[in-house]
Write a structure and sequence with these properties.
Hydantoin permease; 77% helix; mainly alpha; disordered N terminus; globular
């Protein structure tokens, strides 16, 4: 006789799902990556294209992924198996698990670096120590491990008492901190130049490259293609509206990205920074901005705490994707699942931590290339795998599950969706796969 399956969790309320799913989507991609992508791609022009891409590509796929999760009440592997038993399509579910684990491993390393900066500014506030990032191996590994433990502790509490409860605390806190920093930055002389640059599109800067970058950012910032929205959707009740939930998550995620722009660019312009500084914008440019700002040390502490909160809400969903599989399919307890997977993510992430500590000759020698391990992991799991997973999910819905079945699931709790069902099917069948394929090709051949 097989062991009885542990009881599956369920969101206590629709707002609980929205905040948790928004927390999954909101992360370093919104607060770190979006501003530097906007800075490198023309400011307001990039923002305009980004908004269009989110509505055209991301929102329809969001509805699809949530609907498959709620229809089956299973993790990515179980959901595919429920629709197509003994089918080779279950590989799509396993791909989602591997993607979640892979991203969790290196994402937590980057989050640990954020914690390091926060600790440096705290030491400066209390003992006057200069803010200098050393990136010693021991330091990187310790903060990486600490972030993994924080993630495990949240997820071990379960759906309502763990993920939902903390989402209701962390997401409002995230918004309040961002607004406070925005107000402080807007008071700087010359800050409005940064606002103008960020919100005013220069249509001459809308090039194919800008469009491609905006499509990529808009798609990947919403945690699509790694099973997170499918898993969170599996805890959604039939009385809840997928349309309201999915739209709210997309709007919240976009809202946070826009807030990040208002938080960073006014300060950068006011203090003579370069908005096109790239991925170094937060870790190299902003510390200089904080150094030239009255009360900048305190603002920096709050800012890096904010980044940690955003990163934690994302790592929680990454861990939950894999946890749900072991709870549903392997009959493991949640506690056993989260600690085992958290330990695995730590082991897998150690080469990325060594890479961040400056041991690139070792990682380059292993992989016979010029790129470090962390960069390789981000390319494989944060770029290729997400695009492949989302493209295959659309194909699976079209050829196996059936778009009419998906549409019927969305209509449960959202009867007005019937008026737009044909349009949604058109986008999932033709528009979304086409654009996702273009994104995938750009990653492979750029």
């Amino acid at each position: 006789m097989s062991a009885q399956a542990p009881r599956r969790g369920e969101w206590g309320s629709q707002i609980g799902f929205i905040l948790a799913a928004a927390g999954s989507a909101v992360g370093l991609g919104n607060i770190w990556r979006f501003p530097y992508m906007a800075g490198q791609n023309g400011g307001g022009a990039f923002v305009l294209v980004y908004l269009v891409c989110v509505l055209v590509i991301a929102l329809p796929v969001m509805f699809l992924e949530i609907s498959l999760g709620r229809a089956t009440h299973r993790n990515p592997v179980g959901a595919i198996r429920a629709v197509a038993p003994r089918s080779a399509w279950r590989a799509l579910g396993y791909l989602a698990l591997l993607t979640g684990l892979g991203i969790l491993s290196y994402y937590s390393v980057i989050a640990g670096k954020v914690m390091t900066y926060g600790a440096l500014y705290i030491r400066k506030l209390f003992i006057g120590e200069a803010v200098t990032y050393h990136g010693a191996t021991f330091e990187v590994v310790i903060y990486f491990a600490l972030f993994i433990v924080l993630t495990v502790l949240v997820v071990s509490g379960g759906v309502q008492r763990g993920i939902e409860r903390w989402a209701k605390i962390l997401m409002p806190m995230l918004v309040l901190i961002m607004v406070a920093i925005i107000v402080r930055c807007l008071l700087l002389p010359g800050a409005m130049e940064g606002v103008k640059w960020f919100v005013t599109p220069d249509f001459s800067k809308i090039t194919p490259r800008v469009i491609l970058n905006a499509m990529s950012q808009g798609f990947f910032s919403l945690s699509l293609g790694m099973g997170a929205m499918l898993t969170y959707g599996s805890y959604l009740s039939k009385k809840d509206s997928i349309v309201v939930c999915g739209t709210s998550v997309v709007l919240f995620d976009t809202f946070i990205a826009i807030l990040a722009g208002f938080m960073i660019f006014p300060a950068v312009f006011a203090l003579g920074g370069n908005p096109a500084a790239g991925s170094t914008l937060i870790f190299q440019v902003l510390p200089k901005v904080f150094g030239g700002m009255k009360g900048g040390v305190l603002v920096a502490i709050v800012f890096f705490f904010l980044l940690c909160v955003a990163a934690l809400t994302s790592t929680v969903s990454l861990l939950e994707v894999v946890t749900a599989y072991f709870v549903d399919e392997r009959r493991w307890s949640r506690r056993r699942s989260v600690w085992t997977i958290g330990g695995a993510a730590f082991v897998v992430g150690l080469p990325s931590a060594f890479d961040m500590a400056g041991l690139r000759p070792w990682t380059s020698m292993v992989f016979l290339g010029k790129h470090g391990f962390l960069e390789l992991m981000d390319f494989l799991w944060g770029n290729l795998s997400l695009a492949i997973g989302s493209l295959l999910l659309c194909v699976f819905a079209i050829t196996v599950w059936g778009l009419n079945n998906a549409g019927s699931e969305i209509e449960i709790g959202s009867p007005s969706f019937s008026r737009y069902r044909g349009l949604w099917i058109f986008f999932i069948k033709w528009v979304c796969p086409t654009f996702i394929a273009i994104i995938l090709a750009s990653k492979l051949f750029s």
